[in-house]
């Protein structure tokens, strides 16, 4: 992959009832090339829109891939990877970092009625996770519209097991969350 190829990584940080999503454009060469932020409701159903919002705020045609940390940020606010792919017209990859049996049982335990059914409908429509070994670690990847997800993950993971766009996005989201908390405490609330 060319060193100038860009990916948008989207990761979250949350406290209280809102989750901050950090969006970070990173080149395969590890150069950070742009930031955006959005928010979604903890326990809500608006994470898909928030991921798309991170992409659209950047207004960057040069972004080639969208990487999302997991599929259920903000306490089971399930991301519809197919909808993100359709809205961005980019290959979309969800990367998770632990082996698991999935979220179905947890969603069934935590929600009921329409709230449960809506989440399960989105969750069940997502592609299966596939293990990808990278730098002596294993991650689990779901992808939509991507012919070579393992290659993409490896190209954006120069060391360790977390792709650089997701690593930096998580740091940015945490910093924005801390800033928001500090501004809220001082009474001076602004967009991050």
TrEMBL record:
Gene3D superfamilies found in the cross-reference section: archaeoglobus fulgidus dsm 4304 superfamily
InterPro entries the record matches: Endo_dU
Entry similarity comment: Belongs to the UPF0215 family.
Protein name per the record: UPF0215 protein ACFOKC_07300
Lineage: Archaea, Methanobacteriati, Methanobacteriota, Stenosarchaea group, Halobacteria
